[in-house]
Amino acid sequence: MKAIMYMSQSVDPVPKIWLPANLENILARARSNNRKHGISGVLSFKKGHYLQIVEGPNDEVDQLYANIQHDPRHKSVSVICTIQTKQRYLQDWDMKLIPFCAVDTQFVKFMKDHVVGKNDLSTAQQEVFSLFYNLQSTQHDRPSMLAHNEHEYRLKCWPNFLDIKPTPALLGLCALLIGGGWLSCEQLLADSDYGRDKNLHRVLDDLNAQKLLEHRNLQTAEATARRQVVRHAQTPSDSNDPGGLSFYQRMKQFLGARRVS
Amino acid sequence: MSLPDYRKLVIIGDIGAGKTQLIQTLSEISPVTTEANSSIDIGKDLTTVGIDYGRISLNEETALGLYGVPGQERFSFLWDMVSESVWGLMVLVKSTEPPRLDYLDRLLSHFIDAKEKTPCMVALTHSETVEHSELKNLSAQIDLVLHERDVSAPTLPIDCRSEQSAMLLLHTFNAMNIHRTSAT
Ligand SMILES: Cc1cc2nc3c(=O)[nH]c(=O)nc-3n(C[C@H](O)[C@H](O)[C@H](O)COP(=O)(O)O)c2cc1C
Ligand SMILES: Nc1nc2c(ncn2[C@@H]2O[C@H](COP(=O)(O)OP(=O)(O)O)[C@@H](O)[C@H]2O)c(=O)[nH]1
Ligand SMILES: [Mg+2]
């Protein structure tokens, strides 16, 4: 078995649309073909560039790559690595589209084993590659343990709610973590629906294990200033009614009365 | 006439995506039942031009207007009527149909104010009839468009007929609005 990873540039006849007009067709055909030929892989797209890994039996991969190289829907096809492998990295998928490479565990594993630290890319390749993945980052390391009371957090992107159940508490927490700056556990406890440290810590650990969470050491002065910004948002915009409730608070009350929290 | 504290939830999607259904579900859980007279909020009778309308009144002065707008670009003149002071943009995508990524791209660029960070969610409707792997493929394509547009929005399966789904959406939009200091 072998795997090939390459990059290319989409040839898009439609101006102003950021996506290649034929992405859906490429994916649909790839999925049905690959299943037949025992090929699995991932495909990503960023700012006009494709990044793909295809893996499977040697002959099948060579044949497919020959087809892909001559496909007029893209150009400047350049190999990043070709490897021999006994085990599939991308088992379940005939062709998985990955919107955000850095949070895809299979992709990250492949990077760690075959690309990071190998320094085989030309400067031009590195530039395009950095659209997809930061080779300098510690992303490929195992996620480190969180020291909940010494860290503050933010989310890189929303979790995939087809794998994790979208509960009100989790969605609320993610909305907080993704919208603004860094937030401490103290802040998250005040504004999210995780009433207890233990529950919040467990969810943060889960998000961390999925590589979705970023953390850094708590910066107390900044945190206090941010806290005031959030408080400001929670008070009414109508200054004639300083004792009144903001839209946010009224909506929260309304939802609370219906036991969504 | 307009209320002192009035915001809009724009619900946009193709025919059959579930706009009318979602607005019905949301309006039914409103404490003030809406005899939806849309001209109160925008000055025109919206139903005659093809916009669904509902409202959740939080008290006498505070309300969330619900606007169901067709997603096809030929209706973009309707998009303009509801694109001011958006509290949330709810994009409904029918899971049983192939995704129209170019539509999605265009309506995001119309509604999302990058500076204001308009809160946005994408909901996959009719999802219970579609295989899990198909749903994953669909949501990955949608997420790709969101990333390209720099829009930070969750993609999640919902059922527009379910009160629980509808409340979950409101809850999430409310949490997303906490960061918007000038939320209007
Ligand atoms: C970026 C990109 C990725 C592709 N990935 C695959 C793939 O994974 N599998 C596949 O069969 N074809 C893929 N293709 C299409 C091939 O180039 C070629 O059109 C196809 O294999 C021909 O299949 P057919 O003989 O069934 O038409 C891809 C094309 C592009 C532009
Ligand atoms: N199974 C299922 N049916 C739905 C869902 N959302 C809407 N429907 C049904 O699909 C049909 C079309 O929905 P409708 O709200 O009229 O779509 P609209 O054209 O976007 O307004 C109606 O019969 C709805 O009850 C959903 O999430 N799941
Ligand atoms: Mg309708």
Structure, explained:
The complex is a heterodimer of chains A (261) and B (184). Chain A contains nine helices and eight strands. Chain A has 261 residues and is of the alpha+beta class. Chain A folds into two domains: 2-137, Alpha-Beta Plaits (2-Layer Sandwich); 148-218, Arc Repressor Mutant, subunit A (Orthogonal Bundle), CATH 1.10.10. Chain A has a five-stranded mixed beta sheet with strand order 4-1-3-2-5, with helices on both faces. A three-stranded antiparallel beta sheet of chain A has the order 7-6-8. In chain A, a hairpin with a 2-residue loop joins strand 2 (40-46) and strand 3. The longest helix of chain A has 15 residues, at 23-37. Chain B has helices spanning 19-28, 39-42, 46-49, 76-81, 101-111, 132-148, 163-177; strands at 5-13, 52-57, 62-70, 86-94, 120-125, 155-157. A six-stranded mixed beta sheet of chain B has the order 2-3-1-4-5-6, sandwiched between helices. In chain B, helix 6 (132-148) links the parallel strand 5 and strand 6 (155-157). Classes of the chains: A alpha+beta (261), B alpha/beta (184). Chains A and B meet through helix 1, strand 2, strand 5, helix 5 and helix 8 of A and helix 5, helix 6, strand 6 and helix 7 of B. The site of magnesium ion has 3 residues of chain B, from helix 1.
